[in-house]
Design a protein that fits this description.
The chain is an alpha/beta fold. The chain has helices at about 30-45, 65-75, 80-90, 105-110, 140-150, 150-155, 165-170, 180-195, 195-230, 235-245; strands spanning about 5-10, 15-20, 50-55, 60, 95-100, 100-105, 115-120, 125, 165, 175. It has a single domain (about 5-195), classed as 2-enoyl-CoA Hydratase, Chain A, domain 1. The strands form two sheets. Strands 1-2-3-5-7-10 form a six-stranded mixed β-sheet, sandwiched between helices. Strands 4-6-8-9 form a four-stranded mixed β-sheet.
Length: about 250
């Protein structure tokens, strides 16, 4: 059975690598479930001290597989992404991300739940929810303004601007821009693995205590809104336009 997530373990660090090159690492239901299982297993394993999430050197992830959205509209799919996001939020272990190439949609918003993010010069971050007739998810309406400021968050979430690696660094979206982000992420994860595990978990929990309630509330509100938007006429227009390679026409909507 083929897998779209390659899991490795070494010296207290679990690495989850997206491996769906034919789809530019787009996240479908099976990939979300594999990520969810990987994060939960690592979180529960006392031998694991840190978790690294990465993609390929060419692309982190092109975002949610749009085919899954079509299946959900047809009533034959599920929002497996929500289970993955909940697993990230509940994970007690430090999360370290290594990003190269495009990080689109949830490829960017999942990073908001990571403790450390390292980017290659090629990294590009984009959250085109409005372009798709959708709305943000992953508590990004709370976390993104807190991390990069409300003005920049509006640029990303409303205008869907593409943020390059130097800008992401200047805004505080990533920790460092390095030629080999996976090597740097692995180095940081190994450093975490050598530190006192209980003290690390406690410190991490304390760092997150202020936003915890807001994250839960945002997730709940966004999930309802996202489900409604996914079935909206605007989202159908965006999907149809994409399939027929034309610009969506939102002028008819109020």
């Amino acid at each position: 059975m083929t897998t779209t997530v390659v899991t490795t373990h070494a010296a207290g660090v679990t690495t989850l690598r997206l491996d769906r090159p034919s789809k530019k690492n787009a996240l479908d239901g099976a990939t979300y479930r594999a990520l969810t299982d990987g994060v939960r297993a690592a979180g529960e394993d006392p031998a694991v001290r840190a978790i690294v999430i990465t993609g390929s050197p060419e692309v982190f992830t092109s975002g949610n597989d749009l085919g899954d959205f079509a299946r959900i509209r047809a009533g034959s799919g599920d929002l497996a992404a929500m289970d993955f996001l909940r697993a990230l939020i509940a994970c007690p272990k430090p999360l370290v991300a290594a990003v190269a190439g495009w990080a689109v949609g949830i490829g960017t918003t999942l990073l908001l739940h990571c403790d450390f993010v390292y980017a290659a010069p090629s990294a590009r971050f984009r959250t085109p929810f409005v372009d798709l007739g959708l709305c943000p998810e992953a508590a990004s309406t709370v976390l993104l303004p807190a991390i990069i400021g409300p003005r920049h968050a509006a640029e990303m979430l409303i205008l869907g601007v593409t943020v390059d690696a130097p800008t992401a660094l200047a805004w505080g979206l990533v920790n460092e821009v390095v030629d080999d982000p996976l090597a740097r992420a692995t180095e940081i994860a190994a450093t975490i693995a050598r530190r006192a595990p209980g003290a690390t978990r406690t410190t991490r929990a304390l760092l997150r205590r202020v936003t915890a309630a807001d994250v839960d509330a945002a997730m709940a509100a966004e999930q309802v809104a996202f489900g409604e938007r996914l079935l909206s006429a605007e989202a159908v227009e965006a999907a149809t336009a994409m399939m027929t390679k034309r610009t969506p026409d939102f002028a008819k909507f109020t």
